[in-house]
Write a structure and sequence with these properties.
The complex is a heterodimer of chains A (about 140) and B (about 425). Chain A is of the alpha+beta class and about 140 residues long. Helices cover about 45% and strands about 15% of the residues of chain A. Chain A is built from 6 helices and 3 strands. Chain A has helices at about 5, 10-15, 65-75, 80-95, 105-110, 125-145, and strands at about 30-35, 40-50, 50-60. Chain A has a 3-stranded antiparallel beta sheet, covered by helices on one side. In chain A, a hairpin with a 2-residue loop joins strand 2 (about 40-50) and strand 3 (about 50-60). In chain A, helix 2 crosses helix 3 (about 65-75) and helix 3 (about 65-75) packs parallel to helix 6. Chain A is globular, with a radius of gyration of 14 Å. The N and C termini of chain B lie far apart (about 50 Å). Chain B folds into 2 domains: about 5-30 and about 305-415, Aspartate Aminotransferase, domain 1 (Alpha-Beta Complex), CATH 3.90.1150.10; about 40-300, Aspartate Aminotransferase, domain 2, CATH 3.40.640. In chain B, a hairpin with a 3-residue loop joins strand 1 and strand 2 (about 25). Chain B has a 7-stranded mixed beta sheet, sandwiched between helices. In chain B, helix 2 (about 40-50) packs antiparallel against helix 10 (about 290-305). Chain B has helices at about 5-10, 40-50, 60-80, 95-110, 135-145, 165-170, 190-200, 220-225, 250-255, 290-305, 305-325, 355-365, 375-380, 400-415; strands at about 20, 25, 25, 90-95, 125, 150, 175-180, 205-210, 225-230, 240-245, 265, 270-275, 330-335, 345-350, 365, 370, 385-390. Classes of the chains: A alpha+beta (about 140), B alpha/beta (about 425). The interface of A and B includes residues 1, 2 and 16 of A. Bound molecules: pyridoxal-5'-phosphate (PLP). Pyridoxal-5'-phosphate binds near residues 134 and 183 of chain B. Chain B: Keywords: Pyridoxal phosphate, Transferase. Chain B: Its EC number is 2.8.1.7.
């Protein structure tokens, strides 16, 4: 069933057991992003040390795709330099824009290549991108402080 | 008279196609937009094919035919709504959203002292269950004029809380704008008391009939309201056409909203006067083909009979309520009793987010709506960030209801299996 390409096991795993969920009390910047078409919400906290992401925590509610995506993202980007994180972010955005033609760069994206199937479901791409767009935003805010 | 859904479906070409690799289409999203029968598709395209020309302009034959078709559509809408003042009370807009904005902006244009002019100390009353289209225009009007926005709250079982009717509709109230049937909860609101109180304080009552006019017999005179709006596309009609009905004496006293061609009487370089209603509110070349398509839709509905349609949907709603409530972990958001309730039915399934449920149902060929349904304050009030909504129409049957119930159970198995 095509549905299985969307709901990969690792995605549902992250949905049921989200990583880095629960907002840190200290942070350099915080953003709140909403998917206006479905009401999914994410708050994301970041702390930078030099240019390393030293803390990345979040809270939110929404569908399995949006929640698993932010969970996997925080796992992936924690401890990375801003440059590396940006490269991963670009790679994920490219994957989402691929309309099902790409399997994703596993070296960069690791488990997040599981979202490749989402790119075939135009209605769900925004869900998958919610946390990543919040990250893009929170980095800009943290750096401009 | 019971409907023959099998016969009705033959009129709707979309049911000839399949979805998602050959699955039968189970369309449960008519609350968002309805499907179109051939009669409507043909009426719209025949207008372009045979009569296309600018209504109200020119003396040639096509202009006459276009004008007749467009004005004939206005007559059909007037009859459909039971407009006491006839077709002059019908204004075509592009949608219900535009019709409601027209009212809000026109009131904003009213001269000080007019019954429509709002100022600090005046009040606009809405409800917590409004679609954004019947909330945000009034919020904005309140902000522009300094009037106060007040509202009826919604009870946990999805009805309007009218216990403070006389204080919510206070003496300074000039506008009461509410939905006839909630697009989320399915609740049909009781109008008699609200209309009585509104008129007692001199307010006008504006009814958002988007979810009622397509599904039940409407008679504006019996309802006692002052303005009504609905969208053609939810009533088997084309997109791009909506209706504003208003009492003739009110429309005559209401200033225009959009200015331009067709809505004027005389124009000099520095000033203009207005055409009589309804032209005063229809600036520019109108959506003629869509109005003609809408008239074909209303003829189609009338031929089947609005009371028959309502009875059909009501029976299906009762059935669907029973089926869904029998499933473990399903909660209906809105009235669970099948009285004063239409066929929009929202529900949640614990542990499955509506977006995921909608996606699963889609894989079974079932089209539902998920999200907050353009009613964020209501969702917040009821403490649900999103729901799944099934909405029924004349072309749905028991099998569709069964398919949905089976789909929900299958989704529970699918998402529970990891
Ligand atoms: C109750 C209600 N009011 C207003 C609207 C707006 O209708 P439209 O988008 O056609 O203008 C809708 C449509 O979803 C509705 O359900």
């Amino acid at each position: 069933m095509q549905l299985d390409s969307l709901y990969q096991e690792v995605i549902l795993d992250h949905y049921k057991h989200p990583q880095h969920k629960g907002l840190s009390s200290n942070f350099d910047a915080q953003v709140h992003h909403v998917n206006t078409s479905c009401g999914d919400e994410i708050t994301l906290n970041i702390t930078l040390e030099a240019d390393i992401v030293s803390s990345l925590t979040w809270d939110g509610q929404g569908c399995s795709i949006s929640q698993a995506s932010v969970s996997m993202m925080s796992d992936l980007l924690l401890g990375k330099s801003i440059n590396d994180a940006s490269a991963i972010l670009s790679s994920f955005c490219e994957l989402m824009a691929s309309k099902g033609t790409s399997t994703g760069d596993a070296d960069l994206l690791e488990d997040a290549v599981a979202f490749a199937g989402v790119s075939k479901f135009p209605g769900r791409i925004k869900c998958a991108l919610l946390g990543w767009m919040a990250f893009k935003d929170v980095v800009i805010q943290a750096q401009s402080k | 008279m019971p409907l023959s859904v099998e016969e009705i479906r033959k009129d709707f070409p979309i049911f000839e196609r399949t979805v998602r690799d050959g699955k039968k289409l189970i369309y449960l999203d008519s609350g968002a937009t309805s499907q179109k029968p051939n009669a409507v598709i043909d009426a719209e395209s025949d207008f372009y094919r045979f009569h296309n020309s600018a209504a109200h302009r020119g003396v040639h034959q096509l202009a006459e035919e276009a004008t007749d078709a467009y004005e004939g559509a206005r007559e059909t809408v007037a009859t459909f709504l039971g407009a006491p003042g006839g077709s002059n009370e019908i204004v075509f807009t592009k949608s219900a959203t535009e019709a409601l904005n027209l009212l809000a902006y026109a009131m904003g244009n009213a001269a000080p002292g007019s019954r429509f002019a709002l100022e600090p100390g005046d009040r606009i009353v809405v409800t917590e269950m409004e679609h954004h289209s019947n909330l945000v225009p009034w919020q904005q009007l309140a902000q522009r004029t300094g009037a106060e926005l007040a509202w009826f709250e919604v009870t946990p079982d999805g009805r309007l809380d009218l216990s403070a009717l006389d204080t919510v509709i206070s003496h300074g109230t000039k506008v009461v704008a509410l939905t006839h049937q909630s697009n989320v909860l399915g609740t049909i609101n009781p109008l008699d008391e609200i209309v009585r109180r509104a008129h007692e304080v001199g307010a006008v009552v504006i009814l958002d009939a988007c979810q009622s006019a397509p599904h039940m017999r409407i008679n504006v005179e019996e309802l006692g309201i002052d303005f009504l709006a609905f969208s053609g596309h939810k009533a088997l009609g084309p997109t791009g056409v909506g209706v504003l009905w208003g009492r003739i004496n009110l429309l005559e006293n209401l200033p225009p909203f959009l200015f331009g061609g067709s809505m004027i009487e005389m124009v000099t370089m520095t000033s203009a006067t207005w055409a009589p209603v309804p032209q005063k509110f229809e600036a520019g070349v109108p959506n003629m083909a869509q109005a003609v398509g809408l008239a074909a839709a209303l003829d189609y509905l009338t031929k089947i009979g609005m009371d028959n349609i309502h009875a059909h949907e009501s029976a299906l709603t009762g059935l669907l309520l029973d089926k869904l409530l029998a499933i473990d972990k399903v909660a209906v958001i809105g009235p669970t009793s099948n009285t004063e309730r239409g066929s929009a039915l929202s529900f949640t399934v614990s542990d499955i987010h509506p977006h995921d449920l909608g996606q699963f149902l889609d894989s079974q060929g079932i089209a539902v709506r998920t999200g907050a349904h353009c009613a964020w304050p209501l969702a917040r009030r009821l403490n649900v960030s999103a729901t799944t909504r099934a909405s029924l129409y004349l072309y749905n049957d028991e099998q569709d209801c069964q398919a949905l119930a089976d789909g929900v159970v299958a989704a529970q198995r699918y998402f529970g299996s990891f």
